[in-house]
C-alpha cells in the first residue's frame, strides 16, 4: 500500500546553499520538486558538477537522523554486495545526513530511469523482480545486525470489532458529505459491501505472523527505477525495519500486479513468487500464511477513505477503485490467489 502519515506537503524551497556547501557537488543551476512519493519531499538538482537527488526527510515517523543513518549504512553495504541501490553522498564532515533548521536532508546521485508497474513487465521480468526482492531480504540478513530485531513477535491481525466501528464512522462521514459526488457513491457502496464480507469472514482473523527479518518496508513500483528492462535502483528506504519478510513479498506483488479493475494478474504473480521463494529461501507454507495475513489486512483497511474524509487529503483517491475492488475479488478468489503464491 502506498501511504503516508503526513498531510500533503506544500512546495517548500530547500536551503540549498546551507546543504550543498557540505558536499563537493558544485553550484546549483536548477532545482525542481519531484512530484511522486507520499512520505517525504524530493528535488531534482542540476549543478555545475552533475545531477543529484536531494531528499528532505519530512515525515516525522521516519525523520529521526539516527534512523536515516541506519538506512544509509544499509544501502552502502547493499551496494557493496551488488544490489541496485543509490547510496547517499558523504559530506565534508564525514556524515550522510545534513540537519539544517531542524530538518534532515540527504544528497543522492540522480538515477536515470522510470517506474514500471506489473502490466509493463514480461513474465521473465516478473521472475527477475521476485528474485530481486528475495536477494534484498537475503542480503539484508548479511549486512544488518541480528541483535537489532526489535519486535519479539508480529501483532495479531486487525480486530473485526474495531473495523465494524470504523465502517460505521466512515459511513456517517460519507452520508454527511455535501455536495455528494461519484466518490461518495462508490465509497458508500464499498463500505456496505465490506461490512457484509467481514461479517461473513470474521472467524478467519489470523494469529500472529511468522518469522521476521529486515525488509525494505515499502517495496512498490514508485520505489523501483528501471533503466531499459533492468532495475537500476531501489530507492526510498524510509521504512527499513524488521517485519515478516514473506508479507512484504505478498504486499509488493499485490501492488505491482493489481489491474485497474481490481483483480490480480495471477500468471505474473506465480512467476514472481516462485523466483522470490528460490532467492529468499522461503517456503510455500510461509507464503501461504503471508497471503492470509495480507488478505485480512486488506479486508480491514480503509486508509484511503480515512485520508479523504478525515483529513481532506485526496491524493490517494485514484487508488481507491482498484484497491477497494481487490479486497472483494481476493476474498472470492482466495484459493486461486494462495495457489499463485505457493504453487
Describe, in plain words, how this protein is organized in 3D.
With 343 residues, the protein is an alpha+beta fold. It folds into two domains: 16-109, Phosphorylase Kinase, domain 1 (2-Layer Sandwich), CATH 3.30.200.20; 118-156 and 202-342, Aminoglycoside phosphotransferase (APH), C-terminal lobe (Aminoglycoside 3'-phosphotransferase, Chain: A, domain 2), CATH 3.90.1200.10. 45% of the residues lie in helices and 14% in strands. The chain has eleven helices and nine strands. It has helices spanning 16-20, 65-80, 123-143, 160-176, 182-201, 245-256, 266-280, 284-299, 303-311, 320-332, 334-342; strands at 28-34, 41-47, 50-57, 98-100, 103-109, 212-215, 224-227, 230-234, 241-244. The strands form three sheets. The chain has a five-stranded antiparallel beta sheet. The chain has a two-stranded antiparallel ribbon with strand order 6-9. A two-stranded antiparallel ribbon has the order 7-8. A hairpin with a 6-residue loop joins strand 1 and strand 2. It is globular and about 60 Å long. Mean pLDDT is 91; it is low at 1-11.
Amino acid at each position: 500500500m502506498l501511504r503516508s502519515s503526513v498531510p500533503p506537503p506544500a512546495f517548500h524551497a530547500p536551503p540549498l546553499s546551507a546543504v550543498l556547501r557540505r558536499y563537493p557537488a558544485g553550484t546549483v543551476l536548477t532545482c525542481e520538486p519531484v512530484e511522486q512519493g507520499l512520505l517525504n519531499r524530493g528535488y531534482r538538482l542540476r549543478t555545475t558538477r552533475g545531477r543529484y537527488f536531494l531528499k528532505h526527510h519530512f515525515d516525522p515517523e521516519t525523520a529521526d537522523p539516527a534512523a536515516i543513518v541506519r538506512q544509509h549504512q544499509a544501502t552502502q553495504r547493499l551496494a557493496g554486495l551488488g544490489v541496485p541501490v543509490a547510496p547517499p553522498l558523504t559530506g565534508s564532515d564525514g556524515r550522510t545526513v545534513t540537519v539544517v533548521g531542524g530538518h534532515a536532508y540527504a544528497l543522492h546521485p540522480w538515477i536515470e530511469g522510470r517506474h514500471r508497474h506489473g502490466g509493463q513487465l514480461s513474465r521473465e521480468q516478473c521472475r527477475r523482480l521476485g528474485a530481486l526482492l528475495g536477494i534484498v531480504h537475503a542480503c539484508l540478513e548479511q549486512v544488518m545486525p541480528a541483535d537489532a530485531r526489535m519486535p519479539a513477535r508480529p501483532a495479531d491481525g486487525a480486530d473485526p470489532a474495531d473495523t465494524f466501528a470504523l465502517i460505521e464512522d466512515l459511513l456517517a462521514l460519507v452520508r454527511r458529505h455535501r455536495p455528494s459526488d461519484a466518490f461518495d457513491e462508490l465509497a458508500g457502496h464499498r463500505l456496505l459491501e465490506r461490512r457484509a464480507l467481514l461479517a461473513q469472514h470474521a472467524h478467519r482473523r489470523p494469529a500472529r505472523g511468522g518469522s521476521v527479518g529486515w525488509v525494505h518496508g515499502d517495496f512498490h513500483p514508485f520505489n523501483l527505477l528501471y533503466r531499459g528492462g533492468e532495475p537500476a535502483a531501489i530507492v526510498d528506504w524510509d521504512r527499513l525495519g524488521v517485519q515478516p519478510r514473506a508479507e512484504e513479498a505478498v504486499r509488493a506483488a499485490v501492488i505491482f500486479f493489481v489491474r485497474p479493475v481490481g483483480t490480480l494478474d495471477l500468471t505474473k504473480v506465480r512467476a514472481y513468487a516462485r523466483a522470490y521463494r528460490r532467492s529468499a529461501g522461503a517456503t510455500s507454507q510461509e507464503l501461504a500464511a503471508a497471503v492470509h495475513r495480507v488478505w485480512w489486512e486488506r479486508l480491514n483497511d480503509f486508509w484511503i477513505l480515512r485520508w479523504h474524509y478525515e483529513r481532506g487529503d485526496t491524493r490517494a483517491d485514484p487508488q481507491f477503485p482498484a484497491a477497494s475492488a481487490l479486497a472483494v475479488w481476493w476474498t472470492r478468489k482466495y484459493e486461486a490467489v494462495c495457489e499463485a503464491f505457493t504453487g
